[in-house]
Amino acid sequence: MDASTERRLRWRSRRGLLELDILLQRFLDRQGAQLDAVEVEQLQQLLAQPDQSLLAWLTGTEGGIEKEFELIVKKIRQSTVFKD
Questions:
Q1: Which of 46, 49, 56, 76 could form a disulfide with 62 if both were Cys (CB 3.0 to 4.6 A apart)?
Q2: Considering the entire predicted model, what is its pTM?
Q3: 29 — phi, psi (to 5°)?
Q4: pLDDT < 70 regions, the chain
Q5: Dist CA 7 CA 59 (whole Å)
């Protein structure tokens, strides 16, 4: 991932909920440099989702993650305190 893309993702990861900010920033700090083009695209699409859905998916409090987001959500959860 190039520096410009990383900056955009970090900016879009700043959400209205502190919990999301922490989870997403932690993920980008730990795994951002290793994301491939497909994962970057999935993350961009994931970040377009409403905060409440995103928080529920990342914390595992709600099932029904949309199929297209399953892999990136799993990767985010594995890089943070929420383990599958």
A1: 56
A2: 0.85
A3: -65, -40
A4: 81-84
A5: 24
